[in-house]
Amino acid sequence: MAKETKNWGLIGAVGAAVAGSVCCLGPLVLVSLGASGAWIGSLGALEAYRPIFMALSLGLLGFAFYRVYRPQAEACEEGTACARPATKRLTKLILWIVTAVVVGLFASPYFIGRVAAGTQDSVPAVTKTATLQVEGMTCAACPATVRKSLTRIDGVVDARVSFDPPHAVVEFDPAKVAPDQLTAATGGVGYPSKLIGTD
């Protein structure tokens, strides 16, 4: 029974961490896989519940740590799982791995924009720059999703998207891309935008 309780604590902690990061990671993963639709941006509405999921996850992890590291009131019976040192070590290792996964999920919105940023290899001889005002971004990971939707367009050289202020600066080949395609791309993944300037 104790082992099942520990397992449910770990599974619950990971589940709560995933639920807490779906507002940020979900749109990026879906756009990276080629999904589109305005409904993707609605996952950002879960941002308001992120602290609740984080607290739940930390509580379940704390419970799992307590169950694994608490002092045993009585000696284990010979032949049971708690009497085998290898089983104890494996349980502790799994607990620490799950903790690292949960911490990674919690931290993902804060570093995902930097990791997802990149540059294109070739730059056309003539490019233009469009500045878009983007709506609906609710967390620090949203710019990575908007950037991914823009850089998927053939002819977009680079896109720099910021959360505060919520805008995108897109460098594109005017022979291949029209500005309305840029606003359609962000709107297509749930982040409506409007063109506020071109160079």
Overall number of structural domains = 2
Helix content: 40-55%
Mean pLDDT: 80
What's the story with the biggest beta sheet?
A: 4 strands, antiparallel
How far the N terminus sits from the C terminus, by CA atoms, comes to 67 Å
* Discrete helix count: 5
Shape: elongated
Strand content: 5-15%
Please tally the β strands and state the result: 4
Structural class: alpha+beta
Rg over CA atoms, rounded to whole Å, is 23 Å
H-E order: HHHEHEEHE
Low-confidence stretches: none
The order of strands across the largest sheet is 2-3-1-4
Describe this structure in words.
The protein is elongated. It folds into two domains: 2-113; 128-198, Alpha-Beta Plaits, CATH 3.30.70. It is an alpha+beta fold and 199 residues long. α2 packs antiparallel against α3, α3 (85-116) packs across α4 and α4 (142-151) crosses α5 (179-188). It has helices spanning 2-32, 50-69, 85-116, 142-151, 179-188, and strands spanning 128-134, 156-162, 167-172, 193-198. Strands 2-3-1-4 form a four-stranded antiparallel β-sheet, covered by helices on one side. β2 (156-162) and β3 form a beta hairpin. 52% of the residues lie in helices and 13% in strands. The chain is built from five helices and four strands, in the order αααβαββαβ.
